[in-house]
């Protein structure tokens, strides 16, 4: 007997949304988790990932509603569809978690990350670094006679590309914030 | 009108307002103000255990046998860390507990103060939720929230860490009806479309089976009643996990017995060959599924569970239903009735006939011969001599636990207390104390192995102090039986550290505590000895010397599917392949 042909539902409370394909393909998803900003809430989320062996590619967190004391945690994670569904279900049952959104499946979204890159060099390399920064719309936020600190905002791919170009030009140090993301439209 | 009171008084008032009548605990420096308040009132009874682990297991026994949350009160540092095993056990088996721990004063937290431990940090992964209360004004509200979280949705243990200065300071008491409404409100109503799909599948299924679990019992008496109504009206054969025993009665006409690694042959074969599996409140644990890729290969699987994370965790559900068992079963019965209460009677008749053939294998048969008691025989006699009593059974963990599940019959829910998910040796004795506290007139038996029992034997002091007539029925094989069985099957009969050396004389041990001890070695004396145990009005340690190298069968070897069961002492050699040997 073959499995029943059941149409995938879309109502918010339907467990049909939980039906994965059980494929082996690794997918990267961006999750937005709205939580009470209370002590230990980040430890709960991180502990869930480490305790159950899930991946965290990137994680950002900050209070987004100062009156309601809620924070938004943006997590980029990689796993099979089954694992991604488990992560969402497990996050959803943490008591201070209000909402879990999978921005990757809920429609188009904007993802941005901020990075600071320190590039050391003189002469032609210094000029080339500045020229590339201009192309990438990166700003020099600190400058000495033999170094720059560039500030760049963009999708993680863009920052990766910029960092790759800066490497031979004297990249010595880099700091990244991790991804912040919002769905497009309303 | 608000009432000012100290944090310590607030704890007692909040427990009273939550309907708590008993607390299991052990005092210490950081909870002395609360103990002082307990001393000055009579509404809440405090049961002094002999070790904090015992307090948590006793509260679990209380909770499982009543359906109410168990409450624990222990001190900071070692008090809290000793409670960790019990909380992990309760988390795995979905038992509602509220654990209150003392903490060093807020201004000393982080200074490595005497008896300080990061209790909320340590217990974060072993509780459903926990709180460190740093302000007395938030204390009562937090306790009310804690009861809500522990008992709603999938139940579980919660912990509240209360620094000593918070216990001394005063603030307004907030009663439960004025507590903050928690946003934690798990969905209880199932998706009607999915339930309708399940009804449609039930109407046409040729080889359906109900596979029920602890969720039915956790959902409450209404869930049990509806399950029985559904099973009896449809005639669909029913099996259960270890945790779910008693939801459908063992003497019911459609009962297959327990399934899983040491489940009954007919139950496992039916699971493997069914065409519609209806999982009600179970979670496809690895003790149940065996090899996942060969688990019930030809069936449509429906899964009803209140916890969305249980669905599709291990086995893909074709018909997933998130909701409370009682609520979902009520709607299921309603829809099934509205559609004319149809099932494929003819096909189910054939299916039942097939199952009857499997039953003829008689997988639990054994032969009691010679002068040594077989453990199965001991349990068979215990069942025969106690089945008509108002009886509650606890167990420790190991072979005796599986034999108890196989040979004892459970006709009602909340009568069977055993550590399923975590497999905690030392669970049963303190659990039996909690059960006896909740049911003073009932017969409470802890079926134990001698090694497990010794892990929390200090609780004899508790049993004596509160005159709890708990019966400790120890199947003594002088071995860590299940470990030894695995060493026999997997490790070339090299019995590494799996025997019980230097055992106490259990009769003298009982007498040392002022209890009664009985030893039984000969099968001929067994019935009289059990009757003597039942007749004694007080705690009894029953030392039943049994066959030392008896193995627990049937058994699904690790890494094998349900239809590859080992039935007995026949060629068990090399039954577990290299791939299975890494599994536990």
From TrEMBL, chain A:
GO CC, any one term: cytosol
Catalytic activity: 2 pyruvate + H(+) = (2S)-2-acetolactate + CO2
ACT domain residues: 30-105
Coiled coil: none
EC class (word): transferase
PROSITE patterns per UniProt: ACT
Pathway involvement of the protein, from the record: Amino-acid biosynthesis; L-isoleucine biosynthesis; L-isoleucine from 2-oxobutanoate: step 1/4; Amino-acid biosynthesis; L-valine biosynthesis; L-valine from pyruvate: step 1/4
Family, similarity comment: Belongs to the acetolactate synthase small subunit family.
GO BP term, example: isoleucine biosynthetic process
SUPFAM superfamilies: ACT-like
Cited function: Catalyzes the conversion of 2 pyruvate molecules into acetolactate in the first common step of the biosynthetic pathway of the branched-amino acids such as leucine, isoleucine, and valine.
Record keywords: Amino-acid biosynthesis, Branched-chain amino acid biosynthesis, Transferase
The name this protein goes by in its record: Acetolactate synthase small subunit
From TrEMBL, chain B:
Domain Thiamine pyrophosphate enzyme central residues, every copy: 195-332
Any Pfam family hit: TPP_enzyme_C
Record keywords, A-Z: Amino-acid biosynthesis, Branched-chain amino acid biosynthesis, Magnesium, Metal-binding, Thiamine pyrophosphate, Transferase
Catalytic activity: 2 pyruvate + H(+) = (2S)-2-acetolactate + CO2
Domain Thiamine pyrophosphate enzyme TPP-binding: residue ranges: 397-544
E.C. no: 2.2.1.6
InterPro entries reported in the protein's UniProt record: Acetolactate_synth_lsu (IPR012846), AHAS_TPP (IPR039368), DHS-like_NAD/FAD-binding_dom (IPR029035), THDP-binding (IPR029061), Thiamin_PyroP_enz_cen_dom (IPR012000), Thiamin_PyroP_enz_TPP-bd_dom (IPR012001), TPP_enz (IPR045229), TPP_enzyme_TPP-bd (IPR011766)
Cofactor note: Binds 1 thiamine pyrophosphate per subunit. Binds 1 Mg(2+) ion per subunit.
GO biological process, one term: isoleucine biosynthetic process
Top-level taxon of origin: Bacteria
Similarity remark: Belongs to the TPP enzyme family.
UniProt-listed PANTHER family: ACETOLACTATE SYNTHASE CATALYTIC SUBUNIT, MITOCHONDRIAL (PTHR18968:SF13), THIAMINE PYROPHOSPHATE ENZYMES (PTHR18968)
Protein name stated in the entry: Acetolactate synthase
Organism: Roseovarius azorensis
